[in-house]
Amino acid sequence: MASSLALLSLTPAISRHSHLLFSRCPSPRHLRLAPPAAATPSPGGSPGPGVFLSPRALSQLDELAAFRYEHAFPHGLLTVRALSRGPEDDAVAEALVRLLASSFSETVRWAPAQRYAQLLTFVIRRYLHDRRGLAPHAAVLVGFYRPADSAGAAGDEGDEDGEGEGGEDEGEMACTAEVSFNAVGAPGAPPTPTPPLDFPYICNMTVKTALRRRGLGNQLLKACEELVNKMDAKRRVHLHCRIIDQVPFNMYRKAGYNIVQTDSILVWLSLQKRKYLMSKELPQASAASESSTKDFDDNILTY
């Protein structure tokens, strides 16, 4: 569970190296004008400019669009995909804002959780808007869950509770995580201990309260790792875990993550909880083994 100061990772993430978003190629015929990062008008009222992407970046965008990770549990099906940059995923993004705001406000003790969630909603909406525009340097993953007893009727009935904003066949929004693949996509203000910006980094990972303790968090972590391999990023992945969060820490250790660095005790002066910086060297995709999801708790929120 994250502390109230998890907002440090939700500051607007405009890269300090924004010029790197413009990839140079030898000939204009190899370039395609990508859609603007945001569909909303600029402050002046005109649409924002397009961004020229290299063939490799365009290939990575296609990889993100096609990415699907599925895992069938006895109790249901989890499907994880990347949140797109386009307006077709605006409803999903709005539901994701509510999920993140609810998760980050769970451990607040110094203010009414409802008021804090309202503040977080505004901040997270702006943050998510910026992060969606950083594809393919970063990706926001969204997991949808469909219980086993409703999987067969999914195509006919859809979601009556309004949670399936991603489409009638996707199910209820269940979890989310964010992955940055390089220095361009790295968060603008990463928490301490600071991870190396040019390596993949997993953050803002959470599972909906009602769906925890079912193994979804472990599979979401595997989805992040699989995407890192597919995006041809460096294979050493980093993440943070608070020292007090023993169950998520055990999950990360079982998944192969080791402690790289521990927060100084001085972070208490800023009212933060001490954290571990953990890392894992991913195996080649073909060599990745399927591990059991037993005894894994999904009460996870890294930042």
UniProtKB/TrEMBL annotation:
SUPFAM superfamilies: Acyl-CoA N-acyltransferases (Nat). Residues 156-171 have a biased composition (Acidic residues). It holds the Pfam family Acetyltransf_1. Residues 122-283 form the N-acetyltransferase domain. It comes from the Eukaryota. InterPro entries: Acyl_CoA_acyltransferase, GNAT_dom. Residues 151-171 are annotated as: Disordered. PANTHER family: ACYL-COA N-ACYLTRANSFERASES (NAT) SUPERFAMILY PROTEIN (PTHR47489), GCN5-RELATED N-ACETYLTRANSFERASE 5, CHLOROPLASTIC (PTHR47489:SF2). This is N-acetyltransferase domain-containing protein. It comes from Urochloa decumbens. The lineage of its organism: Eukaryota, Viridiplantae, Streptophyta, Embryophyta, Tracheophyta.
